Amino acid sequence: MMGSGIASTFADPQIEFISRPFALTAREFATISALAREEFGLELGKGKEQLVAARLGKLMRRLGFSTFADYYRHVQGDRTGDALVELIDALTTNHTSFFREQAHFDFLVQRVLAEHKGRGAMRIWSAASSTGEEPYTIALTAREHLGDKSPMLPLIFASDISTRVLETARKGIYKADRFQGGVAPWIKKHILRGEGRWEGWYRMRPEILGMVEFRRVNLIEPLPNIGCFTVIFCRNVMIYFSRETQEQLVNRLAACLEPGGYLFVGHSESLTGIQHGLQHVQPAIYRKRGGKK
Predict the structure, then answer these.
(1) 132 in the Ramachandran plot: left (φ > 0), alpha (ψ -120 to 50) or beta?
(2) Are the C-beta atoms of 121 and 89 separated by less than 8 Å?
(3) Do residues 190 and 141 make contact, with C-beta atoms less than 8 angstroms apart?
(4) How many C-beta neighbours within 10 Å does residue 155 have?
(5) Do 113 and 216 share a structural domain?
(6) CB half-sphere exposure, 199, CA atoms < 13 A
(7) Is the same domain home to 87 and 112?
(8) Is residue 278 domain-shared with residue 174, that is, in the same domain?
(9) pLDDT tens digits, residue range 38-63?
(10) Per-residue pLDDT tens over the stretch 28-40
């Protein structure tokens, strides 16, 4: 729920809501920034005014709003939460691809799966799964390395704050250009190639789709009861958060790791300066103490 303090900002009749089409006043920018921080942990610092105006302006045109004031009242009045999700989708970049940051998947095969050998299926969490490329990359990698009938095939839990991207992810349909370096021959046996009007598209086979469970989770809120995981991928999302929010999130994620479990963050992210109990393994990979070495 949004605080009354935010609502009152647009109740002041002395505010000039717009000086030119889709321009933000300083007070409007501060109000939107406060909303993004409170609801999503998103930090919109100084210098982001034009970016926010441009991205929200595009969304407002689509929705038929001519002022930020009217748009904000729409967001406030929407009790479904869909308008808030549209807002965060507009302000953040959901760019992703298959096999992004390949070193993580090499480590998953060469280190994690090797350590887990003989212990049955592990649980892996893709904590900011966006449109699904990351969890499906995990599924493709595990299935190719372990084989179709291996008892070690992981159970993959994938979450995102956006219901829109989760809907896309559940379908498992992607353009060929989402595969970095092209669709390798070994991948083709795990996916279906589109024909006709679907030429240039691929869909995950049912056995790949069945390895992943998608669910909406807001990472800055108390986490639901989702159990423990051997591996958590939380990549390229903390760059949007303040240091305080990053620390809170890392410790929430650490609490969801098994002893000896691994946390993967984005290569542009660092836990330097954050208080946590994880051991640094190599760039962008951390381990919870305990468990089998």
Answers:
(1) left
(2) no
(3) no
(4) 15
(5) yes
(6) 2
(7) no
(8) yes
(9) 887 887 877 788 888 888 888 888 89
(10) 888 888 888 888 7
Q: Which domain does 221 fall in, by range?
A: 102-288
**What is the rounded distance in angstroms from the CA atom of residue 244 to the CA atom of residue 40?**
13
Sorted by sequence, the CB contacts under 8 Å of residue 99 that are 6+ apart come out as: 105, 137, 179, 180, 181
Burial of 239 (0-12, 13-18, 19+ CB in 10 A): middle
- In angstroms and rounded to an integer, the radius of gyration of the C-alpha atoms of the chain is 21
In a domain, 140, yes or no: yes
Q: Is residue 80 part of a domain?
A: yes
pTM: 0.81
The segments of the chain whose pLDDT lies below 70 read: 1-21, 93-95, 291-293
SS3 227: coil
Which amino acids are annotated catalytic? Answer: 55, 160
Residues 193 and 255 both lie in one domain: yes
96: in domain: no
Q: Which helix (H) or strand (E) holds 155?
A: strand 155-160
> Of 91, 118, 153, which residue is a domain's last?
91
Whether 97 is covered by a domain: the verdict is: no
